[in-house]
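ARCHIVE CARD
CATEGORY: sequence design from structure
SOURCE FIELD: tokenized fold
FIELD CONTENT:
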């Protein structure tokens, strides 16, 4: 599927990508898209996620957009800043009850641009520890 998916994405055939997205297990789609983004570093990998989000906004797609922007496309100027929107929306859509989504915000505290301030990171870490008192990422942020 990866070769076909890449062809559709880089040629802007997003409606066909949506068909694949709707008929594929999310984890498979996510892994394939992340692999493509690492391999080709093409911005259209992010654009197709925006297209999908316009149809159905959910935390999983926002999380995937965050991952694409902050990892394989993180070298592009403004990618970390743009990923903040998706990380925050994923947190909002899960009512700040998903530890992994909150950890994404903490990641943005340690990137070179330091998108999330130390003060914000401490507040987020405290929220994480309420949900998961043994969370090492949150503990590292606080201590």
């Amino acid at each position: 599927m990866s070769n076909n998916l890449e062809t559709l994405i880089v040629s802007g055939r997003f409606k066909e990508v949506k068909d694949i997205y709707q008929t594929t297990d999310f984890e498979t789609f996510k892994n394939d898209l992340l692999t493509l983004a690492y391999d080709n570093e093409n911005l259209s990998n992010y654009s197709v996620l925006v297209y999908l989000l316009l149809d159905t906004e959910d935390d999983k797609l926002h999380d995937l957009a965050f991952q694409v922007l902050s990892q394989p496309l993180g070298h592009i100027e403004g990618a970390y800043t743009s990923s903040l929107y998706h990380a925050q929306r994923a947190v909002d859509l899960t009512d700040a009850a998903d530890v992994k989504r909150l950890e994404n915000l903490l990641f943005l505290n340690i990137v070179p641009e330091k998108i999330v301030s130390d003060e914000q990171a401490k507040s987020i870490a405290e929220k994480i520890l309420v949900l998961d008192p043994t969370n090492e990422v949150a503990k590292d942020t606080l201590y």
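CARD ANNOTATION: The mean pLDDT is 96. The chain is about 75% helix and 0% strand.
SHELF: design records, drawer C
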